[in-house]
Backbone:
């Protein structure tokens, strides 16, 4: 057996070395394990990110709507990037999040919607559900705790749930939440311990309200319809949460609800309702809807020719401009294109069509769109804005009449405008751009290029290849003797309007075109039967006429007339019971 | 070869076209196979009476300028047929097809090919054919047939009234069937047990139809090359 000689540090140095190794290992293990996993991005689904997580990891979910049934794992944080816009939707009857036998995990900053159960915690310990909005619906349970679970339900907003919180032990701490318009706010039997600093308003049954409760005070959410549960000024929930807890946003005593306390999402709700009013020259006024959060301090106006908002040409300053606490802001001196910069397009030879002409032209650099000019005597008789296309079909023309055509390109400056809101804190937390926070607008006068070359052509009926004859509506044509008979035209119109617009009608028409000609040929060979064929077609023609041309009054009159005829026919054919014996 | 080509009334117009040459060679090959296969013939005690076939392939229209208007000298075709076997060697049946092509029309005064035209053809054929089958286990079965054709058509010319009609003519057909039962007998037996299918064939078929319409005749027929499956029951 070989014995290896180890190099050793003497005395105290050896102990220090071991301590150093221990610290390095601890440091590395912490670094290795505290990863942030983003969905979507790193993972397609939230569950995939949870499954891949190591103890200490955080799964960050970006704003969107997710429909998954998630199973939580121990020692992880599951967090939405923005509470109001990161929606977890119920998936059938399964809970959105299940924590079964989980230790030390946190779920925060989500909005739970349309679910039978939002979060179900059973047999677990040290679970934190914080900073969420629960709007599961009137039949849903927002949070359900079972099997002696130990959890903290803090700083959530519960709105319109069947049961906001169902707990069956005092091990579940309920603190700094807002319960608004729920069926039952807290279903907790007779257990009243560890319920404190919660606000209750308009619930059918508050349940045990615990200590320091805020009862029947106006909560003043900003917009329930937009799921913006930030608090307005003078809301009863401001600074009324746990007095030992502080707001992550502004550092004051914790607010109640999803945007108060240590785990609150500090990102303000996005600005919406943008509109731009142009004066036709180089100035615009941008307007937006106010953000009524009591923390909103002002707005930043971003502008530029692209969505990166790198404008610097406005007299008011470089983008973004701090607009202060206003909801409209003027921008002047925006850069506009020069008229000389737009060359004339080149029009190609138009393609003649039946009562139409198809014209195409070359693209012009810098053009925002094109206008087709046409007429019989002059190209200026008619003008159509065709957008950014480089070809157009002019319809509604007369066959065999020569038309003159030309094209112009036009250009107009286009700007993107975006508005964000920032809060009163020293961090100046700023909202992000949602789709409704950005608007694109045309600015200044429309610059038009010279006319293109003038081209002429005339529409004409096309000849198909091969040039096959039209034998028309076989049976009706045969029955009425000629193709253009009004009854035949009526049936053709009925076919085109009512039969060829759906699959069963098309099948019928196809079937008819398979067998119709045989009947038509037979009618041609046996003209004595045409009267009978017309009689058979008559109800169809009447129906077609009503469907195509008839008003409701016309239809009702016909039905009354039909009923009358049937009654008269019935009366005539009905034999008098007394007359039989007399005749006999 | 001369006998076959004489069936077409468009002989002078279509001579030398790829479809025409292939068609003639196909039929010559089939004719040559009949005596060879006859040597290995046998007889069946309970022959199937009916056959059902589905097939698809290309249709080469008989008109010359097709490519100028439709961008290709051929278009797709799908078909189905059912036949009654009077004897193992002789059968009669009905065949229905669908052919569709999209192309352009002609602005006659300005001589421009333009616009959009969609042509749909619905050929219906009654046919009789002779099969060179003499044993139920025969690998290759050549066949030849002829019959009556009627083609219903519909032309959709962008923005104009649709044109519809039909025309009647004749056709010949020939092909070669490969008995699939010999390849996988257990599947063949399963087919028989489940669906009553006695024999299954993969086949290749060529058809030549001549269907004219109008006083200045337009040929609606053409040559079809199709492959498909045939089930005897």
Residues:
């Amino acid at each position: 057996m070989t014995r290896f000689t180890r190099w050793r540090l003497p005395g105290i140095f050896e102990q220090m070395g071991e301590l150093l190794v221990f610290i390095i290992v601890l440091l590395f293990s912490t670094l290795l394990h505290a990863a942030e996993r983003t969905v979507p991005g790193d993972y397609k689904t939230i569950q995939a990110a949870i499954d891949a997580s190591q103890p200490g990891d955080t799964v960050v979910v970006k704003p969107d709507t997710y429909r998954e049934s998630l199973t939580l794992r121990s020692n992880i944080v599951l967090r939405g990037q923005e509470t109001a816009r990161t929606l977890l939707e119920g998936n059938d009857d399964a809970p959105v999040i299940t924590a079964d036998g989980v230790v030390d995990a946190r779920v925060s900053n989500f909005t739970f919607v349309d679910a039978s159960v939002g979060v179900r915690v059973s047999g677990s310990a040290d679970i934190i559900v914080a900073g969420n909005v629960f709007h599961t619906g009137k039949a849903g349970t927002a949070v359900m705790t079972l099997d002696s679970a130990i959890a903290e339900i803090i700083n959530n907003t519960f709105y319109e749930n069947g049961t906001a919180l169902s707990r069956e032990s005092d091990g579940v701490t309920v603190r700094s939440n807002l319960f608004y318009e729920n069926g039952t706010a807290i279903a907790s039997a007779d257990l009243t311990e560890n319920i404190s600093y919660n606000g209750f308003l308009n619930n059918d049954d508050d349940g045990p309200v615990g200590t320091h409760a805020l009862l029947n005070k106006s909560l003043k959410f900003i917009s329930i319809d937009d799921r913006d549960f930030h608090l307005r000024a003078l809301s009863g929930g401001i600074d009324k949460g746990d007095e030992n807890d502080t707001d992550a946003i502004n550092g004051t005593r914790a607010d109640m609800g999803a945007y108060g306390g240590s785990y609150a999402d500090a990102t303000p709700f996005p600005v919406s309702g943008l509109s731009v009013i142009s004066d036709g020259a180089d100035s615009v006024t941008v307007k937006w809807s106010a953000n009524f959060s009591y923390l909103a301090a002002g707005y930043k106006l971003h502008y530029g020719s692209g969505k990166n908002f790198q404008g610097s040409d406005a007299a008011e300053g470089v983008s973004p401009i701090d607009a202060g606490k206003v909801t409209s802001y003027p921008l002047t001196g925006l850069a506009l294109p020069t008229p000389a910069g737009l060359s004339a397009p080149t029009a190609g030879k138009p393609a003649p069509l039946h009562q139409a002409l198809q014209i195409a032209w070359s693209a012009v650099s810098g053009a925002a769109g094109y206008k087709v000019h046409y007429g019989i005597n002059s190209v200026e008789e008619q003008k159509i804005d065709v957008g950014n296309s480089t070809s157009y079909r002019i319809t509604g023309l007369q066959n065999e009449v020569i038309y003159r055509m030309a094209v112009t390109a036009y250009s107009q400056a286009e700007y993107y405008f975006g508005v964000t809101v920032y809060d009163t804190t020293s961090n100046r937390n700023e909202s992000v751009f949602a789709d409704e926070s950005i608007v694109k607008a045309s600015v200044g006068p429309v610059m038009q290029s010279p006319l293109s070359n003038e081209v002429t052509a005339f529409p004409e009926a096309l000849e198909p290849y091969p040039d096959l004859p039209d034998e028309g509506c076989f049976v009706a044509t045969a029955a009425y003797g000629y193709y253009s008979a009004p009854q035949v035209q009526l049936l053709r119109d009925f076919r085109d309007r009512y039969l060829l617009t759906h699959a069963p009608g098309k099948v019928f028409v196809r079937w008819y075109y398979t067998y119709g000609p045989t009947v038509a040929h037979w009618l041609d060979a046996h003209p004595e039967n045409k009267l009978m064929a017309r009689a058979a077609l008559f109800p169809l023609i009447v129906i077609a006429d009503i469907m195509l041309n008839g008003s409701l009054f016309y239809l009702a009159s016909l039905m009354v007339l039909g009923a009358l005829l049937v009654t008269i026919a019935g009366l005539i054919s009905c034999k008098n019971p007394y007359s039989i014996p007399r005749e006999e | 070869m001369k006998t076959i080509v004489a069936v077409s009334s468009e002989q002078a117009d279509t001579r030398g076209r790829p479809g025409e040459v292939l068609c003639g060679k196909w039929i010559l090959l089939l004719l040559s196979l009949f005596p060879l296969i006859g040597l290995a013939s046998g007889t069946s005690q309970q022959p199937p009476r009916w056959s059902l076939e589905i097939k698809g392939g290309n249709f080469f229209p008989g008109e010359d300028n097709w490519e100028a208007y439709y961008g290709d000298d051929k278009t797709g075709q799908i078909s189905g047929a059912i036949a009654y076997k009077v004897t193992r060697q002789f059968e009669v049946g009905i065949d229905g097809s669908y052919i569709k092509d999209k192309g352009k029309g002609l602005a006659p005064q300005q001589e421009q090919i333009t616009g959009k035209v969609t042509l749909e053809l619905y050929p219906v054929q009654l046919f009789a054919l002779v099969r060179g089958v003499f044993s139920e286990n025969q690998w290759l079965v050549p066949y030849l047939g002829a019959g009556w054709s009627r083609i219903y058509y519909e032309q959709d010319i962008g923005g104009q009234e649709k044109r519809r009609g039909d025309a009647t003519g004749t056709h010949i057909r020939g092909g070669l069937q490969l008995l699939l039962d010999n390849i996988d007998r257990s599947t063949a037996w399963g087919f028989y047990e489940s669906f009553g299918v006695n024999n299954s064939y993969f086949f290749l078929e060529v058809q030549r139809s001549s269907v004219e319409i109008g006083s200045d005749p337009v040929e609606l027929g053409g040559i079809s090359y199709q492959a498909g499956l045939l089930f005897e029951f």
About this structure: Chain A touches chain B at residues 351-356, 358, 400, 457-458, 460-472, 510, 513-514, 517 (CB under 8 Å).
